Amino acid sequence: MKRSGLITTKIGMTRLYDDGGVAHPVTVLSVGDCTVIGNRTMDKNGYVANVLGLREAKAKHVAKPQAVAAEKSGVKPFRKVAEFRVTDDCIIPVGTALSASHFVVGQFIDVQATSKGKGFQGAMKRHNFGGKEASHGVLKAHRSLGGTGMREWPGRVLKGKKMAGQMGNETVTVQNLKVFGVDEAENLIFVEGAVPGANGTFVLVTDAVKKEHKDLPVPTKLNNAGATSEAAAEPVVEETTETEAVAE
Fold first, then answer.
1. 244: Cβ–Cβ under 8 A, 6 or more apart, which residues?
2. What is the pTM for the complete model shown?
3. What are the extents of the domains in the chain?
4. Which CATH number describes the domain made up of 6-116+169-222?
């Protein structure tokens, strides 16, 4: 079984307290209007997946291919769209609005987001180099990375050498973070620990691939369906009971 993930927005960090009074640093993720806008099937696409969208947008504010695809599916275009590969028993119907209760308190999740961009940085900050000694003979090169060349063979700098350059602004995945709490009213997920990215960054949240999970809602938690069926069944039983009593 492989469930779908969620597209969320990073709100920021705060602290929450458990029953023992211990403070836990948590990251607040907002599920918002995350909605299923499409499905991928084995017959048509060669794989099974749910297509999710977050933050509804006007058609003129999204790329034309996304606007056309949304119109064909009969849904509105969204600013952020992502696919989550699932098994056949975890396909969610198009138009279903997902909520924070998709994840259970205490379970482990994996998060993926774009890290903060630091710009062009030196080797010491970018790769945690120690730098040169602050002693006699070192002239204005204390924070340099040192020699990068080779001997006569191969006579060049190898590809991938740790040097100064662009730092951050790359896709980062953090595994095995724990769900500390869920606020269904505000549609928020409280994740214990730090999540990459600045506030307002889109964060993809999935079940942890390296952990076993039990008692998770499959394919997701649908609050309205269960409540409607129970409410419709109760009056029928009461009316039947009253009719039989009058007949006796």
1. none
2. 0.83
3. 6-116+169-222, 117-168
4. 2.40.30.10
